[in-house]
Write a structure and sequence with these properties.
Largest sheet: 5 strands, parallel
Number of strands: 12
CATH architecture of the largest domain: 3-Layer(aba) Sandwich
CATH class of the largest domain: Alpha Beta
CATH topology of the largest domain: Rossmann fold
Order of helices and strands: EHEHEHEHEHEEEEHEHHEE
Length: 224
């Protein structure tokens, strides 16, 4: 399978350097120099992965990510910020609008390629998920990437979906934060301490406050 990647950055030199190296790795690569162009290219090519800069003209990364997540045709697309803005506040802002990961510049090309390979493996891993998991009014269908809450379909970004699926698979079981990080973000990904909290908060807004229980300082569990 040849993965399609869309690179979005207003610095042409960076775009061409990354594009050249990813094409060498066998990926089908498209580029955009601002958020508006990124939306057009994403709708046209439906990439598996979008590498998105934070600071851009016309439409910044946050606005672009939010707009992409509103497009149902792109709900399976993985969005990863690649930005020089590395503070936790910027990372949380990225996750809050539906990003799957956040990488900071500068980053060595070999490391970036390795990270992209690991991120794209999540697409293959989705196929290994149980067909459907149900618990107290919640049905998570891993094959179709759909969630039904009390009979109504709700839309979840990829990370929120994976987190809910993990919790619903083991109702009543406490899942430690370290295990959640490892299984949802991967052992090689460094994210802020509040990343899980942001995703849990957004899940609660969509499925109800009472279904996910916090065990302070330890982890979370799903209570049917």
């Amino acid at each position: 399978m040849t993965y399609r990647i869309l690179l979005v950055d207003d610095e042409v030199d960076i775009l061409e350097f990354i594009r050249y190296n990813l094409v060498r790795e066998g990926y089908e690569v498209y580029t955009a120099q601002d958020g508006a162009e990124a939306l057009e290219k994403a709708a046209q090519y439906r990439p598996h992965l979008i590498l998105l800069d934070m600071m851009m003209p016309r439409m910044d990364g946050i606005e672009t990510c939010r707009a992409i997540r509103r497009n149902p045709d792109l709900r399976h697309t993985i969005i990863v910020f690649l930005s020089a803005l590395g503070e936790e506040e910027q990372q949380l802002a990225g996750f809050d609008v539906g990003a799957d990961d956040y990488l900071t510049k500068p980053i060595k090309m070999k490391l970036l390629v390795s990270r992209i390979q690991a991120i794209l493996k999540r697409i293959d891993n989705t196929a290994e998920s149980p067909a459907a998991v149900t618990g107290s009014g919640i049905t998570v269908d891993g094959e179709r990437h759909t969630v039904y809450c009390d009979g109504k379909e709700i839309s979840l970004p990829r990370k929120e979906f994976a987190l809910l699926e993990l919790l619903v698979q083991s109702p009543g079981k406490l899942i430690p934060r370290e295990e959640i990080y490892a299984r949802i973000w991967g052992t090689g990904v460094v994210v802020g301490d509040r990343t899980i909290d942001v995703h849990i908060r957004k899940l609660r807004q969509k499925i109800g406050e009472q279904r996910i229980i916090t065990v302070k300082g330890v982890g979370y569990k799903y209570e049917p």
